[in-house]
């Protein structure tokens, strides 16, 4: 399975997963024209996108949803999250309720609840027909047991490593914003992400993508070293037991 992270961070998020010429997007948080351009840059024709799966309706995850209207792409999002999504034509709306597995071309997609200050936010688990598994966990303030169980045995983990708490505390953000980021419905710290990956990674050569890093409250090297240090406690070394990329 081919992974192309077209955008990551507070300015916008969009991930393309491709197998056997079928592509799905997780989020569409940059302008429609930018998504089209970046898809073409990685060799994907926009009209080959078969579905868009939205994690939640914050602007950095849905800004480019008019792409769906142009190419008649079905859009999946939590059933109640549609209250805050108004840019998708009615016939393309696919509400996700409790439970459910979706067939989408060469993909099978399931979902799990996450903890974020949105109405009905989701994470996603994607398999191809060879049972290759990808887990996507973006904005969430914590990782609970049900989330870990949903993501276990993945071949690829795409997960946020948003901030270093001490950098948030020292930032010039208003106290209300600091409290939101650090809350259980905010974003994952490097340490939270590292501990979750320690639970998940079994050293079979998994690929890990650390995403949604704050440009003000994190450093790529800090996120990378925090995860590597935690996985080393299990005897796992990058390049040998797993691959790690900070996006």
From TrEMBL:
Gene3D superfamilies: Ribonuclease Z/Hydroxyacylglutathione hydrolase-like (3.60.15.10)
Signal sequence residues: none
Metallo-beta-lactamase domain boundaries: 11-212
GO molecular function: hydrolase activity
Keyword entries, A-Z: Hydrolase
InterPro entries linked: Metallo-B-lactamas, RibonucZ/Hydroxyglut_hydro, WalJ/YycJ-like
Pfam family, one: Lactamase_B_2
Coiled-coil features, chain-numbered ranges: none
Name of the protein in question: Hydrolase
């Amino acid at each position: 399975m081919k992974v192309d992270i077209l955008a990551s961070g507070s300015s916008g998020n969009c991930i393309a997963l491709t197998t056997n010429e079928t592509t799905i997007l997780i989020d569409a948080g940059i302008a429609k024209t930018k998504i089209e351009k970046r898809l073409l840059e990685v060799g994907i024709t926009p009209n080959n996108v078969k579905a868009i799966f939205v994690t939640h309706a914050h602007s950095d995850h849905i800004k480019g949803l008019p792409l769906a209207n142009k190419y008649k792409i079905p859009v999946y999002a939590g059933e109640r999250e549609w209250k805050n999504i108004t840019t998708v034509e009615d016939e393309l709306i696919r509400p996700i309720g409790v439970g459910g597995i979706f067939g989408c071309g060469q993909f099978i997609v399931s979902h799990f609840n996450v903890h974020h200050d949105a109405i009905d936010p989701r994470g996603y688990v994607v398999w191809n027909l060879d049972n290759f598994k990808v887990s996507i966990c973006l904005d969430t303030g914590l990782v609970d047991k049900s989330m870990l169980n949903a993501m276990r045995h993945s071949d690829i983990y795409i997960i946020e490593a948003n901030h270093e708490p001490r950098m948030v505390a020292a930032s010039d953000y208003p106290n209300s914003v600091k409290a939101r980021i650090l809350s259980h419905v905010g974003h994952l710290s490097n340490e939270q992400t590292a501990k979750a990956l320690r639970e998940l990674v079994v050293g079979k050569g998994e690929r890990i993508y650390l995403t949604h890093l704050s440009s003000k409250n994190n450093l790529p090297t800090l996120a990378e070293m925090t995860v590597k240090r935690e996985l080393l406690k299990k005897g796992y070394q990058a390049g040998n037991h797993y691959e790690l990329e900070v996006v």
